[in-house]
Amino acid sequence: MDAFHMAPSARSVIPALLETHEKMVLASWMENQISVGSLRSGQMREDELEDQSQGFLREFVQALDSGEVSDISGAAWTSVRDLLGDFCRTRAVQGFTPSQTATFVFSQPKGR
Fold this sequence. Notes:
Structural class: mainly alpha
Low-confidence stretches: 1-7
Number of domains: 1
């Protein structure tokens, strides 16, 4: 197979798909976070949760786009790791449990 007929790599396809469908992914992810009680305790407003989610999604896509997907300890992932650290600290101050914070990271969009 020559360079002109190679299949698109995960490096180009996944970030492109996430960028193209960012609003849908974000809306679904927010719906899932809210349905598992991320806002129930009143420790965080919905707009704050959305800002954090959107910021994380953008940093995640940027890291994926770097092509450095097999080593998340690499430089391309620094901003993602820093952002997650900030979320953990902020949420601890707000009174969230470690389980509630993990829900933010591991919740996923519901299938449609």
